[in-house]
Amino acid sequence: MLAIRSAVAGDVPVILQLIRALAAFEREPDAVVATEADLLRDGFGPSPRFRVLLAEDDGQPAGFAFHFFAYSTWRGRPVLYLEDLFVLPEHRSKGIGLALMRALARRAVDEGCARFVWEVLDWNGQAIRFYESLGAEVLRSWLNVRLEGSALARLAEGAPAAGS
């Protein structure tokens, strides 16, 4: 029996396990530095920065959707941003990913969102086909831009960029 529910603070260890499983799937098994304390602080305090939907298959954790709300300046409306969607390999092909996406779409509609957006790795053809089957448009003309670590600190401090 499949169940989709909002995560609670007691789910943090499971959420972190799923994040680590996702990182391994995405070929970055050592990239996760988030801790249970981080997730508890930022997701389950007085001003949560993210939300998580958990999928359970016969009472066992099967997948998750980690998301938050952003804002579209052009639309003047909120946007539901899906950071991570993941279903454990042993639970795939049971409609769990579809159930999570439907639950997120309902949340976006209920919150008056102009959009529901996410990213997908270019090598993940199966996911791309799945998203397109839902009616999603893969925007190949947009590039991800990221500033982190020492580059972020340098910019915040007003220091010149590396190589300037």
Give the helices and strands, then pairings.
Layout: E1 2-6, H1 12-25, H2 36-43, E2 51-57, E3 60-72, E4 77-87, H3 96-110, E5 115-118, H4 125-133, H5 149-157
Parallel strand pairs: 4-5
Antiparallel strand pairs: 1-2, 2-3, 3-4
Radius of gyration: 17 Å
Q: Helix- and strand-based class?
A: alpha+beta
Which regions have little confidence, pLDDT < 50, spanning 5+ residues?
none
Instruction: Name the CATH superfamily assignment.
Output: Gcn5-related N-acetyltransferase (GNAT)
Overall geometry comes to: globular
The tally of domains stands at 1
CATH class: Alpha Beta
Helix content: 25-40%
Average pLDDT taken over every residue: 95
- Euclidean distance between termini CA atoms: 58 Å
Taking the sheet with the most strands, its summary is: 5 strands, mixed
Brief summary:
The protein is built from five helices and five strands; from the N terminus they run βααβββαβαα. With 164 residues, it is an alpha+beta fold.
